[in-house]
TrEMBL record:
<dbReference type="InterPro" id="IPR051262">
    <property type="entry name" value="SMP-30/CGR1_Lactonase"/>
</dbReference>
<dbReference type="GO" id="GO:0016787">
    <property type="term" value="F:hydrolase activity"/>
</dbReference>
<feature type="domain" description="Ricin B lectin">
    <location>
        <begin position="30"/>
        <end position="152"/>
    </location>
</feature>
<feature type="active site" description="Proton donor/acceptor">
    <location>
        <position position="381"/>
    </location>
</feature>
<dbReference type="Pfam" id="PF08450">
    <property type="entry name" value="SGL"/>
</dbReference>
<keyword id="KW-0732">Signal</keyword>
<dbReference type="InterPro" id="IPR000772">
    <property type="entry name" value="Ricin_B_lectin"/>
</dbReference>
<dbReference type="InterPro" id="IPR013658">
    <property type="entry name" value="SGL"/>
</dbReference>
<feature type="signal peptide">
    <location>
        <begin position="1"/>
        <end position="22"/>
    </location>
</feature>
<keyword id="KW-0862">Zinc</keyword>
<feature type="binding site">
    <location>
        <position position="336"/>
    </location>
    <ligand>
        <name>a divalent metal cation</name>
    </ligand>
</feature>
<keyword id="KW-0378">Hydrolase</keyword>
<comment type="similarity">
    <text>Belongs to the SMP-30/CGR1 family.</text>
</comment>
<dbReference type="InterPro" id="IPR035992">
    <property type="entry name" value="Ricin_B-like_lectins"/>
</dbReference>
<keyword id="KW-0479">Metal-binding</keyword>
<dbReference type="GO" id="GO:0046872">
    <property type="term" value="F:metal ion binding"/>
</dbReference>
<dbReference type="InterPro" id="IPR005511">
    <property type="entry name" value="SMP-30"/>
</dbReference>
């Protein structure tokens, strides 16, 4: 039943041991360019004198936004990014200062953040703000979006990813996952919560009410105890992606034909995307978030149910940046799974009804370039990516996860259940692939879906 198709996306990311944002050239020359952070704003210094406070500012390409990263972070003026007074305390000001080789001026890239090894603390946008002029400080690392930085050359995410190179992701070309627990009506949207070491996922129910809309709950699976609990009842969700703040989950919410954010502590719901130019979405299905906070999602019509068609028969791919919804593509019939490559430069979308996986180049401002074919694969549903950039695409009709190298070469398959919907990496080392699969309901919530898992060789990103 197409009304059940759906997915979440986990975004993989590439770790670096140092601040260099891309593989260094043979000459050892450090990467140079802008450093972007919260809200897509640039690391900016308005002057070149000792003690000038460093801040966030809209990217202009000016000299105050040019940095060289190579164990230290050096401005175009030749001054170094520096913790004032060599402090190791929370709230210490970050400034530029004459380079002196002290620990106050050492920075390494860890988990997508810039860490000062002397203190073990992160470069942080104060007040969790992305407004122009937001001063930067030293703060305990939280994994929040206000501590995520994209370095010159494009490297942004790290998280679970250890330094490469990586070998083959699969122990063998044909694998079978192990069932953890069954008895759910229709599972979707797995996403790993690193802070609690648990998996969040959606359990969808059969349609109800005059419009036959499918209700759903967000569940939490705790591997340490084997327990499944309800985190958010009546969430109306399909695909999920843990937000970059680590404290909320972004959900493709078909109940309100929107994209929402749920606070995991309070359950409070905030709408991120309500419509496109006043037109109601069909039924947002799958979602992912970039390091700069840009949200990408697919909008097939699988859960539109008996509600009016606001999109004129088209199904689309959209992005949300700074509260503005933009159309990426409305020429793919039933787009479903959506994933970002490890370096944040490529967006993958599965065309459920077209027999293709597509990819788009992603620009620095979050916009996308021309679409191209990545691989041929019919019935695509959810998917994820590992730290080496290998793409894991689920096919709904046969319960299979198909694994592709970044080049598009088929690497192998993983089977799980009868009707697979989604997959996501998790576990303490990120090497456990969780898969949702089972038998759809034929009425009366009589579906029998299960959560599966399998250990692989390469870790993946939990978002």
């Amino acid at each position: 039943m197409n009304v059940h198709f759906g997915h979440r996306l986990a975004v993989a990311a590439l770790c670096l041991a140092g601040v260099v944002a891309a593989a260094p050239a043979a000459s050892g020359v450090a990467s140079a360019g802008r450093i972007t952070g919260f809200g897509g704003k640039c690391l900016d210094v308005p002057g070149g004198t000792d003690g000038t406070r460093v801040r966030l500012w809209s990217c202009t390409g000016g000299a105050g936004q040019q940095w060289t990263a190579d164990g230290t972070v050096v401005a175009a003026s030749g001054k170094c990014l520096d913790v004032a007074g060599g402090s190791t305390g929370n709230g210490a000001a970050v400034q530029v200062w004459t380079c002196n080789g002290t620990g106050a001026q050492r920075w390494t890239a860890q988990a997508g953040s810039l860490v000062n090894p002397m203190s073990g603390k992160c470069l942080d946008a104060t007040g969790v703000s992305s407004a122009d002029g937001t001063p930067l400080q030293l703060w305990t690392c939280t994994g929040g979006a206000n501590q995520a930085w994209t370095l010159p050359g494009g490297t942004s995410d790290a998280g679970f990813c250890p330094p490469g190179p990586f070998g083959s992701p699969l122990p063998s070309p044909q694998l079978s996952a192990t069932k953890i627990r069954e008895g759910f009506n229709f599972l979707e949207g797995p996403t790993w919560d690193k802070a609690s070491q648990t998996l969040l996922l959606t359990n969808m129910h059969d349609g109800t009410g005059p419009e036959n809309v499918q209700p759903s709950d967000v569940l939490r699976y705790t591997p340490a105890t084997g327990a499944f609990t309800t985190v958010i009842a009546n969430a109306g969700s399909n695909g999920l992606a843990l937000a970059r703040d680590g404290k909320s989950v972004i959900a493709a919410t078909h109940d309100q034909r929107s994209v929402s954010r749920y606070d995991l502590a309070t359950g409070q719901r905030t709408t991120l995307a309500a419509n496109f130019q006043g037109r109601a979405f069909n039924s947002p299905n799958d979602v992912t978030e970039a390091a700069d906070g840009t949200v990408y999602f697919t909008d097939p019509d699988f859960q539109r149910a008996d509600r009016p068609d606001g999109m004129g028969g088209r199904t689309g791919v959209f992005r949300v940046r700074d509260g503005v919804v933009s159309l990426i593509d409305d020429t793919i019939r039933e787009p479903n799974g959506i994933e970002l490559a490890p370096d944040g430069r490529t967006l993958y979308v599965g065309g459920n009804a077209t027999g293709r996986i597509y990819h788009y180049p992603v620009n620095a401002d979050g916009s996308t370039g021309a679409r191209a074919d990545f691989a041929s694969l019919g019935g695509t549903d959810g998917g994820t990516i590992d730290c080496a950039g290998n793409v894991y695409q689920v096919t709904y009709g046969d319960g299979v996860v198909h694994v592709f190298a970044p080049s598009g070469q088929a690497l192998g398959t993983i089977t799980a259940g009868r009707t697979a919907t989604n997959a996501a990496f998790g576990g303490p080392d990120g090497k456990t692939l969780f898969i949702t699969s089972g038998t759809p309901s034929t009425g009366g919530d009589n579906g029998n879906f299960a959560l599966y898992s399998i250990r692989l060789n390469v870790p993946g990103w939990p978002y």
